[in-house]
Amino acid sequence: MTVWINNIKTAALLGGMTALFVLVGSRWGVGGMTVALLFGGVMNLGAWWFSDKIALASMRGQEVDASTAPELYAMVDRLRTSAGLPMPKVYICPHQAPNAFATGRSPKKAAVAVTQGALQLLNARELEGVMAHELAHVKHRDTLTSCVAATIAGVLAWVAQMSLFFGGGNREGGNPLVGILTIIVAAVGAAVIKGMISRSREFAADAGGARIAGHADGLISALQKLEVYAGRVPMQQPNPAMNNLFIVEPLMLSKSITGLFASHPPTEKRIASLRAVEAAL
Questions:
Q1: Active-site residue list
Q2: Residue stretches of the chain with pLDDT short of 50
């Protein structure tokens, strides 16, 4: 039921993002709205087909198998069987910042990735909780939704920058300042909606991961460690557009400034929710 409710919420939120996109296009009249819809469709199609490749390439992920990483591969295989999923591709990313993510447009095309830093930091039970969390994202089909949301938000931010540079969209008789403000509000609104989508999904993935692993204490302990180390070890050349893909947010900016734009709920709230799940297991 929780997953179904989250899917309904996500559909509504993505609809809101599309409406913001069309709002930007409206500054150039009916033609602009049509172009915005077409451009948004192309971006969504690109996210559908290439988001996993882009994410893995940006993280320099290296695919592993039963011969190159036997313990990790066997763990993922065991967990995906428990989740009733096809075997995803498994990647290790050569980053010391401890983190993990899942990507792919469907469970059949999924991939899970973990950084070298996470492999060194986490014990077997903690790592199992983390990989189960990522497989829950795959099972809930969160990976595609997150990429589409990130794409729309990113395009709106780019349009806002271009508008400021060139003076803003201004149809005949309109106020150029209103045009600029419209685009900026749309870009900021998209970033807020993107964060809302991701935050609601993290709670569901935490609960689903605990059920897949058969325990919640491993993920609880992992989140506590990852929260601390994410603030100490920066991700090499981090891409803010990918923040919502990771199990913990890699860019640890001031929470007072970025609370509305955070891609993850506070770790303490995630842990409290997991303790309630643990009591029910």
A1: 134
A2: 169-174, 252-260
